[in-house]
Specification:
Blueprint lengths: L7 E6 L4 H6 L1 H10 L3 E7 L11 H4 L5 E6 L6 H14 L3 E4 L6 H14 L3 E3 L21 H9 L16 H15 L4 E5 L11 H14 L4 E4 L6 H8 L6 E3 L6 H8 L4 E5 L2 H8 L4 E4 L17 E3 L26 H13 L2
Parallel strand pairs: 1-2, 1-4, 2-3, 4-5, 6-7, 6-9, 7-8, 9-10, 10-11
Helix pairs in contact: 7-10, 8-12, 10-11
């Protein structure tokens, strides 16, 4: 994407994919409020997982986003000089650090690179040990990644304002909803996305089939909209063959923003902790979400109210309260299908 807009620019450093972009939306709103005369340049990497969409596919179109810069997979001597050149040509005067830290030494390295070498003022660098921890909240839940970032950056009040919403344009909504209606022609539907980027998010085909069978038996006219990457299309098509009502397989057909628009108005989202789950929450779709113990409970829960999250609580004490990827192992298998069915039926009963 080309760089356009104001002469003053702020670089926002956030690695990751779609979910990371959604949890950053309130931060982008806070940045726009604090520096209204600056454009935002997103400094981000290509996703590690091959089936994950780049973050810029989500944020291109959000207010204030003027362009993006590529963060190299390995910040060596050559790639570091290349990034320095791109940062200097961009003309930014400040960097807001939203990336998950990998430890104190990596934070020190990043400070040396961005502050000393690139000459940027830096906001949000997690220097203190508490900045690199999730704080426990009431009822055995930890603060969300969004709230940790707000705390470290010194922002407040934006999460409560509902700024986890995507700023979808009317043409995006119309395009996505026309595609959905062309395939199912139904007003009531469930959005379904059971595939995560990692093996520890595999809940099992047998359990998803049990949940879908119970729901379609109780509501045979309810439609099913399948959301995912192109590589998920065949696997999700198999689930659709056992669904009684209309089915729309949109896997690989829509960008992340159009996927969010296509889920608008769904009775619920059903699936694992994933980018599509965060997209659904960003357009106020209630989520029935199945989690593994990759992070403390609460950290990556969908934003907003009315969700039903199933987390393997017996594993929570063993999960470190620090950012970064942790292997959830087989923890997700602790969650019973009948509990997920009950949550989905409860939400469907309130629609």
């Amino acid at each position: 994407m080309g760089i356009v807009g104001h002469s003053k620019r702020i670089v926002v450093f956030r690695r990751g994919s779609i979910g990371d972009g959604v949890v950053s939306l309130p931060l982008l709103a806070a940045i726009r409020d604090r520096w209204p005369d600056h454009d935002i340049l997103l400094l981000t990497n290509e996703p590690v997982a091959r089936n994950a969409a780049p973050m810029m596919q989500l944020l291109d179109g959000e207010p204030g986003i003027a362009g993006s810069l590529a963060f190299p997979a390995g910040l060596g001597l050559a790639s570091g000089f290349g990034l320095l050149g791109r940062l200097r040509r961009a003309g930014a005067d400040r960097l807001v650090y939203l990336s998950e830290p990998n430890g104190f030494l990596s934070v020190c390295r990043d400070w040396l690179f961005f502050r000393i070498c690139a000459g940027l003022a830096v906001t949000g660098l997690p220097v203190c040990s508490s900045d690199r921890l999730y704080l426990e909240q009431a009822e055995g839940r930890w603060e969300r990644e969004t709230d940790r970032l707000m705390r470290v950056c010194g922002f407040s009040g934006h999460e409560e304002q509902g700024l986890h919403h995507l700023n979808l344009h009317d043409d995006e909504k119309e395009t996505a909803q026309q595609m959905r209606r062309a395939e199912i022609g139904a007003e009531r539907f469930i959005a379904f996305s059971p595939i995560g980027k990692t093996a520890d998010k595999d809940w099992g085909n047998d359990r998803w089939q049990e949940v879908l069978s119970a729901l379609t038996s109780a509501s045979p006219d309810l439609a099913l909209v399948l959301i995912g990457a192109a590589s998920d299309r065949e696997k999700l098509a198999e689930y659709g063959r056992h669904w009684t009502g209309p089915v729309a397989n949109l896997c690989g057909k829509l960008s992340p923003r159009l996927s969010a628009a296509a889920m608008m108005g769904a009775d619920l989202f059903l699936g694992v902790d994933s980018g599509p789950m965060h997209l659904a929450a960003s357009v106020d779709v209630p989520c029935v979400a199945v989690f593994s113990a990759r992070a403390k409970p609460g950290v990556w829960y969908p934003a907003g109210a009315g969700h039903r999250v199933h987390y393997p609580q017996s594993y929570a004490a063993d999960v470190p309260a620090v950012p970064g990827a942790h292997d959830g192992g087989k923890s997700i298998r602790e969650i019973a299908a009948e509990d997920v069915i009950a949550s989905a039926r409860d939400l469907l009963g309130h629609r």
